[in-house]
Amino acid sequence: MADQGLMATSAFLDWHPPTVPGLALERRETLTIASLAALKGKKDALLAAIRSTYGVDLPQRPGRVESAGLAFVWAGPDQWLAISERGQNNRDLEVELKTALAGSASVADLSDGRVILRVSGDRARDVLVKGVPVDLHPRAFRPGDVAITHASHIGVILWQVDEKPTYELAMFRSYADSLAHWLFDAAAEFASAR
Fold first, then answer.
1. I want to staple 93 with a disulfide (CB 3.0 to 4.6 A). Which of 11, 34, 114, 165 is the partner?
2. Which CATH class is domain 31-109?
3. Could you tell me the pTM of the whole model?
């Protein structure tokens, strides 16, 4: 009898990015992702638990904070995404956060339902502005900034990681190939640039 077990499969089934000087496109497929939302009347307890356990203050506006390889991204009022590499210890943020935040937040695993793409390098802004209706100029959007928006009509949460610039986009897994195709088309103009 054939093995009936499930196998991990990339959300990006047709991943053929163009080679573009000054642009790196990366699938972040080894992440553990969880959503957390403050329970009614428990926001202060949640903020205190995160500060005590992870040493950061959760952003109260669109923003991103990071501590020891764990990032928290604002995802709406009293809601955040928690994101980390699984690593050799197979970290599971759902399990970890349910323990750390017991009684103050609801926590749900999003690792199989969301995907994250990283876009970095000198051409990152040039490519993203073709389909993202957010002012990505360094005066308007900086490391740590977050926008809940769309990229080529696909809903995303976008944040800037560093000044290179490096951006990450989180989306529903079912839209991964569509967003990748748009990104490749948007980058193609620069493929022959020197």
1. 34
2. alpha beta
3. 0.92
